[in-house]
Amino acid sequence: MRSERSFAAPVKFFALLCAMLGVFLVKNILFTTVLAIFCFVYVGFQRNYRLMASCGAFYLLLSLLLCAIRFYGYHTVIISEFLVLFFWSSMVMLMLFWDLFMTPPGELSSFLSSIHMPTGVILGLMVIFRFFPTMKAELKAVGLSMKNRGLTSVKQFTGHPLASFEYVLVPLLLRILQIADQLAVSAVARGAERPGVRKSYYETTMHMRDWCFLALWGIVTAAVLCVGGVKI
């Protein structure tokens, strides 16, 4: 079962869809700020304060850069002004993508099965959603293994850069192959190839606050598009 403070999977998918429509269709890009503020409120209701703090600091930094570029003629050196504007306007989508990534895979697959999405599409999405957290855990394990063998010193990296790169790449690739085999066996064991209606341990239940935020995302996005204008 999902955490009581987390929203249901349909709300998360609908929120991401609304954010994508608002960001890509609004004519006045400044109105994406409204979506971003509401997104912070949405994440705050789930008590995901770590995501709020990290994305909030990044969003504030991008806002300051945009103000410096717009009013003081500042020119960035590392990245272009276009990328600064792109990431600033897309922050709401990045937050909602990450929130969706953190949802238990069983809950996501249960919801996708309930709307009769093909099994191949569901399995592909599950692999994509779990790729980054899995790679993070594997890289951490490889780093700890190298540290135990004394291969993480500055002298090692500067003196033998190619060998250090090999020490990271080879075990990581081997773990990726092992995980791929395990996923294939797990999918077959759980009846991925079985035709017909599939059941799940997870239930897609919608509470009152889920319905409220489902409606609020639609209202806020429609208001942003009405006031900010639509590109098409």
UniProtKB/TrEMBL annotation:
Parts of the chain that traverse the membrane: 12-45, 51-72, 79-98, 110-132, 211-230
Tree of life domain: Bacteria
Entry protein name: Cobalt transporter
Localization of this protein: Membrane
Organism: Eisenbergiella tayi
Bilayer topology annotation: Multi-pass membrane protein
Pfam families: CbiQ
UniProt keyword list: Membrane, Transmembrane, Transmembrane helix
